[in-house]
Amino acid sequence: DQQVKQNSPSLSVQEGRISILNCDYTNSMFDYFLWYKKYPAEGPTFLISISSIKDKNEDGRFTVFLNKSAKHLSLHIVPSQPGDSAVYFCAVRPQGAQKLVFGQGTRLTINP
Amino acid sequence: EAQVTQNPRYLITVTGKKLTVTCSQNMNHEYMSWYRQDPGLGLRQIYYSMNVEVTDKGDVPEGYKVSRKEKRNFPLILESPSPNQTSLYFCASSGQGPGNTIYFGEGSWLTVV
């Protein structure tokens, strides 16, 4: 049973526009929500996170939004740049645990 | 430089031939874990370790063993590999506590024929 779902396997966005990646989760017992970015032949790298007590966290071009009532997480990248082309994984951390539960990933392609 | 190092990066092996994937971190992290990545499934945790000599099963532990004799090392052992263990494997480490960032190694591509 997939607790974290990224329903879009891929997304294509023009350079300079906004990229919006979405993630849905099924369990309310998560206390941290994270986004990881992965380039080919590399491990996932941490991008941005948000705790369950907040609804927005911003870091430069990246903003994560958390809608707890809808059990929905999104990542906004603006403006999108070619170097943002990668696979993005959303991940959640169960309360009291240190592991991460990952979504399936979304491949983002930024077109020049 | 903070690093999680895995070896080998690429391996093709035959069914039943024992193999070990090593993992080492230089950040003095207490927590280490192994994940596998499969198409359409994201990353799933295999085993984790909260500290030396403390290990526990993750979500998909069948067919794997681990050990944590030293803080920096956390090898993944496949005693009798099978084709369904063909996957991309990631080692990860972090400090204790939910606010700590989890760092991943570069991955090990394993093919079992």
Structure characterization notes:
The complex is a heterodimer of chains A (112) and B (113). The radius of gyration of chain A is 13 Å and the shape is globular. Chain A is 0% helix and 56% strand. Chain A is mostly beta strands. The N and C termini of chain A lie far apart (38 Å). The model of chain A has no long low-confidence stretch (mean pLDDT 94). Chain A has strands at residues 4-5, 10-14, 19-25, 30-38, 45-51, 56-59, 62-67, 72-77, 86-94, 101-102, 106-111. Chain B has 113 residues and is an all-beta fold. Chain B has no helices and eleven strands. In chain B, the strands form two sheets. In chain B, strands 2, 4, 5, 6, 9, 10 and 11 form a seven-stranded mixed beta sheet that branches. Chain B has a four-stranded antiparallel beta sheet with strand order 1-3-8-7, with no helix packed on it. In chain B, strand 9 (87-94) and strand 10 (103-104) form a beta hairpin. Chain B is globular. The relative contact order of chain B is 0.33. The mean pLDDT of chain B is 94. Classes of the chains: A mainly beta (112), B mainly beta (113). Chains A and B meet through strand 4, strand 9 and strand 10 of A and strand 4, strand 5 and strand 10 of B.
List the helices and strands and how they pair.
The complex is a heterodimer of chains A (112) and B (113).
Chain A: E1 4-5, E2 10-14, E3 19-25, E4 30-38, E5 45-51, E6 56-59, E7 62-67, E8 72-77, E9 86-94, E10 101-102, E11 106-111
Parallel strand pairs in A: 2-11
Antiparallel strand pairs in A: 1-3, 3-8, 4-5, 4-9, 6-7, 7-8, 9-10, 9-11
Chain B: E1 4-7, E2 10-13, E3 19-25, E4 31-38, E5 42-51, E6 54-57, E7 65-66, E8 76-78, E9 87-94, E10 103-104, E11 108-112
Parallel strand pairs in B: 2-11
Antiparallel strand pairs in B: 1-3, 3-8, 4-5, 4-9, 5-6, 7-8, 9-10, 9-11
